């Protein structure tokens, strides 16, 4: 059995109540049971609007019939009331006119404002025509009597006001229900900009905020080793800032325990949202020869854990309850700052990707198409050269080859702009695709070494992809190399990208004065990584960028 929608039940209840009210008013005005035929006719005309309220034809026809019946019924009931009370004022029309609001309001509720206005006009015309055609016993037209005109005007105005009010309420409800992403985004970003300008150092960089937090906690807890960690996806954390751990030759950060599935105080603090004290170091590669006191404090914004602070010192009972409470109190305000920075980083990443896509579209639809047309023009000129114009033909061939080269470079640039790390494919897939396509275009033999054990934060993956793209492009365009080696190793929070070629190399590995190298250095600094540009033995150049801590394999080897 089909269930009747609540809106349809409400429509039935409203129409039934109005019909009952009109029936009572008609009996009070005429004392004639026969006049209740108008109630029956209205009920019959209202069936399409009740049973098929969304029908494109039946529902409007039903509402039109109701409106016409109200106009005709008003004149007839006014005449019957005048005869009953021996009057000639026509005020009895008010007995049925309240029902006029039903079809007109129903049309507006079904988002048909033009139909609603049309029904109002139909009611006015019907009332006027019926009143003009109805002749009273004294020989005058019903339309000439003030009572009839006043009753019709009153209820037409009330119906119009009700229709306008219903439309305004609908629009207000729609505005409340309908999200306005751009208006809301503008408001929020404006507030964010104002807040960012008031922050210490006017920064919303998660790494800087994490370093500032460690500086605040250092004189309180006096840790020998400490780190701030945040979520990076796939059940892992990423180190935003740390101190007290010496970097080895392959890393700039310590291999803190970043798995949320491990048996560690870090995983327990994240899951419980409570500070955890442990006698075991939270470093994967730490050679623990003596007692260690470790404290992990969750950074909670609202009900969500946005990060952790891990503090360690040698010895036992390094973090008694009183000291733990002071550290928690000092760290708590940083949770909201860190959450704002992480959200801002995500918004900035989305905006950057959208801008890259927009630039790619504009270049493709503009400069690229114009260059293609110029190439066609050169081809046509070559085809129409007269006999003996060998010099001109040679120049045109050289020009056509140069145009072809520029178009190829432009297409590779478009591919670079459009490339991004797919959430399913990962960083290694994006770098491998770019390396293969770029290498094929330049006739390079591409050698890939890919190992991805997890995912890094989206912002870090994006910057690593851009660094790899710049390094591969430099090798393709300037190295005159025959081979290209690309290594990508991801073991969160550790990441290594290395691009090597066997070309002519560069005489000076410094990044200053070279725009492409300077951009790579800025990107590496932005993700708190280390960029190295060094000669390759025996020939060529190697560009490497490292982020995070030691890889999982290195961490196991040092235990």
TrEMBL record:
For this UniProt record, the keywords arranged alphabetically read as follows:
Kinase, Membrane, Transferase, Transmembrane, Transmembrane helix, Two-component regulatory system
Domain Histidine kinase/HSP90-like ATPase: where? 459-551
Can you cite an annotated GO cellular component? membrane
- MF terms (GO), sorted A to Z: phosphorelay sensor kinase activity; protein dimerization activity
Q: Which InterPro entries match?
A: GAF (IPR003018), GAF-like_dom_sf (IPR029016), HATPase_C_sf (IPR036890), HATPase_dom (IPR003594), Sensor_HK_TwoCompSys (IPR050482), Sig_transdc_His_kin_sub3_dim/P (IPR011712)
* Gene3D superfamilies reported for this sequence: 1.20.5.1930, 3.30.450.40, Histidine kinase-like ATPase, C-terminal domain
Annotated transmembrane regions: 12-30, 36-52, 64-85, 91-110, 117-136, 148-169
Please indicate which superkingdom the organism of origin belongs to. Bacteria
Record-linked SUPFAM superfamilies = ATPase domain of HSP90 chaperone/DNA topoisomerase II/histidine kinase, GAF domain-like
Query: How is this protein named in the record?
Result: Histidine kinase/HSP90-like ATPase domain-containing protein
């Amino acid at each position: 059995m089909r269930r009747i929608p609540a809106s349809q039940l409400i429509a039935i209840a409203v129409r039934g109540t109005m019909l009952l009210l009109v029936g009572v008013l008609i009996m009070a005005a005429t004392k004639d049971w026969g006049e209740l035929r108008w109630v029956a006719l209205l009920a019959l005309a209202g069936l399409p609007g009740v049973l098929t309220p969304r029908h494109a034809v039946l529902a409007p026809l039903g509402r039109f019939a109701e409106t016409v019946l109200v106009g005709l019924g008003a004149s007839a009931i006014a005449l019957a009331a005048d005869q009953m009370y021996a009057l000639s004022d026509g005020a009895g029309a008010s007995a049925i006119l309240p029902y006029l609001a039903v079809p007109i309001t129903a049309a507006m509720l079904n988002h048909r404002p033009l139909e609603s206005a049309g029904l109002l006009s139909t009611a006015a015309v019907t009332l006027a025509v019926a009143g003009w055609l109805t002749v009273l016993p004294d020989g005058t037209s019903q339309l000439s009597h003030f009572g009839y005109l006043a009753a019709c005007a009153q209820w037409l105005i009330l119906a119009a006001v009700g229709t306008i009010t219903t439309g305004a309420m609908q629009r207000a409800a729609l505005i409340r229900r309908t999200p306005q992403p751009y208006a809301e985004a503008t408001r929020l970003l404006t507030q964010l900009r104002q807040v960012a300008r008031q922050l210490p150092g006017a920064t919303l960089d998660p790494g800087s905020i994490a370093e500032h937090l460690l500086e605040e906690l250092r004189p309180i807890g006096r840790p020998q080793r400490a780190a701030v960690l945040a979520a990076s996806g796939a059940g892992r954390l990423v180190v935003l800032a740390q101190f007290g751990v010496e970097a080895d030759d392959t890393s700039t950060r310590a291999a803190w325990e970043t798995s949320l599935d491990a048996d560690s105080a870090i995983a327990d603090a994240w899951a419980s949202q409570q500070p955890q004290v442990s006698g075991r170091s939270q470093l994967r590669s730490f050679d623990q020869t003596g007692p260690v006191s470790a404290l992990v404090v969750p950074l909670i914004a609202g009900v969500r854990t946005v990060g952790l602070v891990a503090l360690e010192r040698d010895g036992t009972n390094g973090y008694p309850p009183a000291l733990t409470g002071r550290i928690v109190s000092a760290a708590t305000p940083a949770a909201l700052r860190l959450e704002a920075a992480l959200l801002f980083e995500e918004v900035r990443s989305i905006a950057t990707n959208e801008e890259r896509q927009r630039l790619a579209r504009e270049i493709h639809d503009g400069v690229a198409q114009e260059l293609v047309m110029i190439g066609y023009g050169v081809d046509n000129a070559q085809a129409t050269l007269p006999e003996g114009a060998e010099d001109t033909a040679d120049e045109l061939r050289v020009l056509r080859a140069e145009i072809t080269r520029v178009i190829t470079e432009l297409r590779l640039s478009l591919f670079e702009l459009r490339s991004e790390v797919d959430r399913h494919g990962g960083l290694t897939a994006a770098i491998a695709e770019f390396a293969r396509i770029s290498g094929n275009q330049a006739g390079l033999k591409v050698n890939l070494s890919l190992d991805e054990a997890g995912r890094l934060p989206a912002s870090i993956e994006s910057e690593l992809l851009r660094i790899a793209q710049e390094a591969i492009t430099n090798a393709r365009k300037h190295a005159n190399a025959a081979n290209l080696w690309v290594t990508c190793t991801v073991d969160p929070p550790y990441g290594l990208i290395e691009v090597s070629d066997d070309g002519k190399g560069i005489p000076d590995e410094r990044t200053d004065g070279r725009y492409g190298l300077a951009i790579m250095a800025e990107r590496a600094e932005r993700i708190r990584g280390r960029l190295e540009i060094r000669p390759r033995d025996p020939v060529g150049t190697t560009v490497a960028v490292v982020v995070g801590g030691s890889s999982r394999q290195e961490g196991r080897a040092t235990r």
